[in-house]
Amino acid sequence: MKKKILALMMCVMAMSFVGLGSVSAATESGLDGCKIPRLTRLPASLTCTMTTVGSSTYCLYSSDDCGMCCLLNGVYNITDRVFVILMAVSSLMIIWGAVLFTTSQGNTDSVSKARQLILFAAVGIAVALFSRAIPPAIKMIIGV
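The structure corresponding to this sequence follows.
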């Protein structure tokens, strides 16, 4: 039980580090704002002051709604990465569970391990799909 909790905590820490890299500030380009890769995700009700430097678009903090734009952009980036990672790991778990099923040769321990692995993969897929629902929920909570 302690090993599972430790593994879960390590996964949460790893995902938070992935998220930290996705919320990038514009200080490297000399601007005071945040980098926004896809403008189509932001609601039209937000009036962010945007500027383009090279191929990157930045929301400047001089705008009133820039904080909300950067927050939503960060949430989208984090949940996108969590979704991809969980779907990849869950797919591998399903494949490994199928391999265990086919090579079990009637061994009840291997069969139960394979079933448990596939069940955990199904839970991982459910969590990954739930991560796609987080940005719309945050939009509804903050009222944009």
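Confidence is low (pLDDT under 50) at residues 22-26.
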